[in-house]
Amino acid sequence: AAHCAECDSCILRFDHHCPFVNNCVGQRNYHFFTAFLASTAMLAFSVIAGVGVTIIDVSAHDAAHHLSPTTVWILGLAVGVPSVIFGLVVFGFLLYHCSLMLRGKTTKEAWTKKLTRGPTIFEPRGASVV
User: For 47-63, how does the pLDDT look when each residue is reduced to its tens digit (9 = 90+)?
Assistant: First the structure.
């Protein structure tokens, strides 16, 4: 177990404090955090695909839409470019955490190069105090 200074709580098999979910990631919620990363990466992919399909559709059928192709391109770039950057970053985090899971390590162990004795991230969840 480790103490998180930001949450002021003791976390079993502490991985890291995630500012995006405002919570510590450890043994009891690591799978939820991984699912969060996967769903966020899929959302970014869906937005990118939707923007791409919309730009292609407007470019092919100019007269059928109320927006000009220039407006659609500007909106597509304004939404698409940040989505691509955000999606790549989240997908990178997802790949990193999948590699950590395959090695049975936490982020803290990988960065400090110190292995923690005791249960791994894959151990069953213990009893909750809540």
Answer: 999 998 888 888 777 65
